[in-house]
């Protein structure tokens, strides 16, 4: 057992006091728990943030935005031939005179090929509150390590938002972690 690790289970909590002791901006908090045992890992997080009309707060940009809460559940399992993962996120937005929420599902995999990896992911989301729009995003990538801290990558992304044209993007790059 190390630190706050209890047989693979860890947890964290956060509270932000905000810029002042009054107003909605002082109510922001988050709690998180995760579990890891061998090839299996899972996590859950909840966060809540109130907004006010203070300059720089989200409500000053989007009038009537009162609060936002988000819940997320995720899990992964690493087989010898691939790592699979999935996630569900529920975001609730409280806007003056109405509110809306977004449900998002994502799944993906990582397939090792020697020291490199093929990566793939698909996400689907739908919102409510009168808009009732959906979004689908798919990615395919390749990651090749040059060293422990540096890798080359190539990625393709397809994105479709209901009622709009689809978008595609591709990129290559080099990344170094410090």
TrEMBL record:
Q: What are the protein's UniProt keywords? A: Cell outer membrane, Ion transport, Membrane, Porin, Signal, Transmembrane, Transmembrane beta strand, Transport
What's the protein name?
A: Porin
Q: What does the annotation say about its assembly with partners?
A: Homotrimer.
Query: Where does the record say this protein resides?
Result: Cell outer membrane
Output the superkingdom of the source species: Bacteria
Q: Pinpoint the Porin domain residues.
A: 6-160
Membrane topology annotation: Multi-pass membrane protein
Q: Give yes or no: UniProt keyword Transmembrane.
A: yes
**CDD domains according to UniProt:** gram_neg_porins
- SUPFAM superfamilies cross-referenced by the UniProt entry: Porins
